[in-house]
Amino acid sequence: MKKKNSESSARGRRAGGNVKPIPDSQIDFSDIPESTEEELRAARRVGRPSSGMAKQLIAIRLSPRLLNQLRKMAAKRKKPYQTLIHELLEKAASHAA
Predict the structure, then answer these.
(1) Which residues of the chain register pLDDT less than 50?
(2) pLDDT at 16
(3) Which sequence spans correspond to the domains of the chain?
(4) CA dihedral of residues 13, 14, 16, 18 (deg, nearest 10)
């Protein structure tokens, strides 16, 4: 079974390296119908809502054993493991202060 190449991986970048981007001016959009006023009114923003309390994305290295334990704990509590890690860190930080 052939692995799917992702452009975010080194293999994907190499595989996609031969493909040259096409400028927008050379793309034929003539077969795409214009959006109607009704469609535009019904359109909704996709993605996370912007708020003043957005969380910051970081990278952290955990041992596979610890990560496995945290995932099991989260599953027992029926919540995402990243949410559980956030709650545990928040609790530890407030106790340390």
Answers:
(1) none
(2) 63
(3) 64-97
(4) 140
